[in-house]
Amino acid sequence: MKSTKSARLLTVLVVFCITVRFLTTQEIINNTTPAQDNTTTTFTGIYRKHLIQARYCGNQVLQEDQRYRTVWVRSKIECVAVCRLDEDCVSIVYDKGQAQCHLADSRAFANCTNMEPAEPAASFYQEPPPCGYGETLGPLGLCICARGFNGTPCVRYFHDCADHYYHGNWLGDDEYSIQPLDSPEPFGVFCRFIANVRLHVMVRKKNKNQEDFNRPWNDYRDGFGRYDRDFWIGLEKLHLITSADRSYKLRVTIRLINDTSIVHEYNDFKVSDEASGYRLFFNTSVLNGPDDCLLPLLDAKFSTYDHDKDEAANLNCASVRKGGWWYRGSGCGSCSPHGILYKRSDGKLQGEQDEVFWSFLGNAAPYKLNMYLVPGDAVEE
Ligand SMILES: *[C@@H]1O[C@H](CO)[C@@H](O)[C@H](O)[C@H]1NC(C)=O
Ligand SMILES: *[C@@H]1O[C@H](CO)[C@@H](O)[C@H](O)[C@H]1NC(C)=O
Ligand SMILES: *[C@@H]1O[C@H](CO)[C@@H](O)[C@H](O)[C@H]1NC(C)=O
Ligand SMILES: *[C@@H]1O[C@H](CO)[C@@H](O)[C@H](O)[C@H]1NC(C)=O
Ligand SMILES: *[C@@H]1O[C@H](CO)[C@@H](O)[C@H](O)[C@H]1NC(C)=O
């Protein structure tokens, strides 16, 4: 019995891995071109040794005592060529008036303390430091993080789906790797773009009850299912995304059998950490009727059949409703998105404890029920 279940789970996982293209952070980083800084003149493509004009010290050149060799040249190009052939040469002072090329093996400091005023006809060029991936040459001749990168070393951070979209890494609805501010490592989420709002798909329940939602705590914590069928993102990811520096709305979209769509949004949606029971929080809701089912669940702890935190004596709501959720009190609350979709032909509720329902719909049963995290500043449809 147990082995059949793990075998089935394994199959699901294998299929999951094959079907869903997972972009690792490394791949994303390698696929993204860092911004180029064009504040400097480069000789790229002509000389292997790039000498760029260093203007950040004003009209100054490298101090005389740092130059180790002087040659007569007819042009700046020739001076560059001499430096290129000299292994030790890192910078040049080209003196057009004297037709002299001074070679040096050091560079201008960012604070310019090793520079001296130059003759009007002299100019200074140096090899830029080798900048690594995600870096660009800064105005002071130092490598700095390119736009969209930060940290030491420079790393591209995608905090959420919106970052992928706005930093030119959008390849359509798919799984993307994100790393919210306090997350120890990146993880995958499914990002959807719908009518000008950037979304994370959180939970998706549709068609034929393809995924078993009657699962233990660890599954609800870590997430389960397949993006193209039914799935649950996982409470830990929800916590990490919603507890970072940006605000999100929980958007619940419900499709009825007659194709009517109902959208409910909960502003400033947050889920606390595991130690405090993944408590539910939101500020205000939009489109809520007087019987909004999430309102009485504010600050409730999440429950699963093996982790009963519903505050109801002698009752295990997650077990009765056949799915993990925020439940409270002997009535368990009036939203139950993770049970069974009975899909009656008349579109009505079956009247069972374990079916999917959402209170404000009255007698109508959800035909599909999806949830997304939407950036707090997303425009309303
Ligand atoms: C990304 O680039 C780094 C550095 O060039 C390389 O070591 C790494 O293997 C690349 N990763 C992928 C997934 O291509
Ligand atoms: C960089 O190049 C762009 C396009 O040629 C130009 O519009 C811009 O002024 C340049 N920036 C600087 C700082 O030179
Ligand atoms: C200027 O920069 C150089 C090289 O980074 C450093 O050794 C020196 O102490 C700096 N001088 C001042 C006055 O900051
Ligand atoms: C669809 O069903 C709901 C619930 O029964 C009802 O309120 C709504 O008016 C219906 N919409 C249409 C277009 O028939
Ligand atoms: C909801 O947000 C508003 C505006 O930011 C704030 O004034 C109010 O205190 C918040 N309510 C709760 C319950 O946090």
Kindly list the characteristics that best describe this protein.
single chain; 381 residues; alpha+beta; Hepatocyte Growth Factor; Gamma Fibrinogen, Chain A, domain 1; 2 domains; nine-stranded antiparallel β-sheet; five-stranded antiparallel β-sheet; 16% helix; binds 2-acetamido-2-deoxy-beta-D-glucopyranose; Fibrinogen-like_C
Q: If you had to describe this structure to a student in words, what would you say it looks like?
A:
The chain is α+β, with helices and mostly antiparallel strands and 381 residues long. The protein has 7 helices and 26 strands. Strands 12, 13, 14, 15, 16, 17, 18, 21 and 26 form a 9-stranded antiparallel β-sheet that branches. Bound molecules: 2-acetamido-2-deoxy-beta-D-glucopyranose (NAG) (5 copies). Residues 109, 111, 113 line the site of one 2-acetamido-2-deoxy-beta-D-glucopyranose (NAG).
Present the secondary structure layout:
Elements: H1 2-19, H2 25-31, E1 52-53, E2 60-62, E3 67-72, H3 76-85, E4 91-95, E5 100-104, E6 115-117, E7 122-126, E8 135-137, E9 143-145, E10 149-150, E11 155-156, H4 161-166, E12 174-178, E13 187-194, E14 197-205, H5 217-222, E15 224-225, E16 231-232, H6 235-242, E17 248-255, E18 261-266, E19 270-271, E20 280-281, E21 285-286, E22 302-303, H7 317-321, E23 325-326, E24 335-336, E25 357-358, E26 368-375
Bound molecules: 2-acetamido-2-deoxy-beta-D-glucopyranose (NAG) (5 copies).
One 2-acetamido-2-deoxy-beta-D-glucopyranose (NAG) binds at residues 26-27, 30.
